[in-house]
Amino acid sequence: MRIVSDVKTDINMREVTFEISAEALEGACERVYQRQKKDILIKGFRKGKAPRKMVEKIYGEEVFFEDAVNMLLPAELDQMVTELGLTLVDRPAIELVSCTKAEGAVCKATCITKPEVEISAYKGIHAPMVVHEVTDEDIDQQIEIFRQRQARIVEVTDRAAENGDEVKINFEGFIDDVAFEGGKGEEYPLRLGSGQFIPGFEEQIIGHNIGEQFDITVTFPESYGDERYAGKEAVFKIELLAISMQELPDADDELAKDVSDFDTMEALRADIRGKMTETAQKQAENQFESAVFDTLIAATDAAVPSVMYERRISQMVRDFEQNLRRQYNDMTLADYLSYTGMTEQQMRDTYEEQARKEVLLRLALEKIADLEGIEVSDEELEDGLQDFAAKVGVSLEVVKAQIPMADFKLDMRVTKAVELVKSNAVVDNDMAPAAEEAPAEETAEATDAE
User: Tens of pLDDT along 81-115?
Assistant: First the structure.
């Protein structure tokens, strides 16, 4: 391979013209012929026995050129990239300029290169890390969830329906005294206050007793999905068949025993507080890290080729489909798009901003690794490969055979750069958004209660 010209045509764009020698082309043509000859049938010869010269005489000397050049291109491109010191972000577009037996092939590669990156600052980044203080109210809410899970349903026969009750009703709706489609139900279960029906429907059942038959009047919202009914008044004839309610257990030691390994409510509450505090700390750390990286991204200047964003988006879509298949019995992306009414492009658009951030962050971290001279020792590389092999459940030999070592080593350098940025970041809670003050009346009431 000989480079003929190397021209920068735009930011991150290069056109490289290179030659493939006649000797290399001839050798590749012979290998292509040997692979294909078993399928070649020419009059006067048994299938697979036609000499190469006869094939080229009939079909032209260029008959094997395209496959031969494609066979040579991977190695030729690797040599070109190494010789010019390029870092490509996508597979080059190749144009075959000329190809003859006597002179070999001339190819033009349109290359998209990794952008130059400038970072204004990456040490001493300030960001808030506010840890939510776990309150008794937070613990009460979790205890309430436990109570809801342990609730039992009991029939109510001695009072009227109340908000929160589960009722069973027959109903039929009329608009201008005419029954309308979809407005009828029998023995229909409905939790009052759930908002399942249009506004005003559930509220008018409250106060009625089992066995009562009554009418309620509601107005369909102007934004109702069926235009035939939007904005119209309807009368529903209701028969209340049954009332039931949730009976919640007391928040006592018995509940603690039922929902946990603890014997007392006090111990359960202490455990909940500990776990919530740990979670709050982790959330604060994650938010701090996210804020630091957002600042780093904002401090990064790079003319990023659009193909880098598109490739990241494509990976995110593939990851999404893999998760679909795992979680929903091999659901495909096409199935998901059909169910949601979304096009693939619309889905890709939803990933655009996140892809932009991830690509810029990766470029920034790689630049920091270069600026700081971050390296990975052979021992660190070996340990990293062993950890990865254990994580994916394959042997170390398989990992080494299948993973490009240069890429894996770069990932480890980036990980070190992440730790460097985080370790040099500064917690600055003066940057945290100010908490909204409670209205004066509410503050006074809280003080009085204390």
Answer: 999 999 999 999 999 999 999 999 999 999 999 99
For residue 345 the two structure tokens come to 């492009």
What contacts 203, CB < 8 A, 6 or more positions away? 192
Which of 230, 358, 226 is CA-nearest to residue 297?
Answer: 358
- Tokens 């577009």 appear where? 93
Single-letter code of the amino acid located at 203: E
Q: With contact defined as beta carbons under 8 Å apart, do 272 and 255 qualify? A: no
| pLDDT reported for residue 443 | 33
Total H helices, total E strands in the chain: 13, 13
Euclidean distance between CA atoms 204 and 163, whole angstroms: 10
Alpha carbon distances (Å) from 11 to 8, 303, 324? 8, 8, 38
In 10 A of CB 88, how many CB atoms?
16
Q: What is the pLDDT of residue 432?
A: 81
Angle 282-285-291 from CA coordinates, rounded to 5°: 140
- In eight-state DSSP terms, residue 333 is H
Cα gap 146→132, rounded to integer Å: 22
Distance CA 82, CA 69 (A): 19
User: For residue 433, what are the CA distances in angstroms to 130, 142, 425?
Assistant: 10, 27, 19
Average of per-residue pLDDT values in the chain = 92
Instruction: Indicate the pLDDT class of residue 2, thresholds 50, 70 and 90.
Output: very high
Name the β-bridge partners of 234: 218
Reduced to 3 states (helix: H, G, I; strand: E, B; else coil), residue 53 is: helix
Query: pLDDT by residue (tens digit) across 50-71?
Result: 999 999 999 999 999 999 999 9
| Encoded tokens for 339 | 């169910």
Q: Which residues have CB under 8 Å from 213's CB, separation 6+? A: 237, 238, 239, 240
Q: What is the pLDDT of residue 434?
A: 62
By residue count, the chain amounts to: 450
H or E stretch covering 111: strand 104-112
The pLDDT of 173-183, averaged and rounded, is 92
Distance between CA atoms of residues 6 and 339, nearest Å:
50
CB 30 within 8 A of CB 36: no
Pull the structure tokens for residue 298: 């904002």
- What pLDDT is recorded for position 444? 33
Q: Roughly how many angstroms between the first and final C-alpha of the chain, as a whole number?
A: 85
Q: Tokens 């949601």 label which residue?
A: 340
Name which of 61, 58, 59, 37 is nearest 49 in CA terms: 37
Which residue, chain included where needed, has tokens 């990456």? 122
Distance CA 344, CA 325 (A): 17
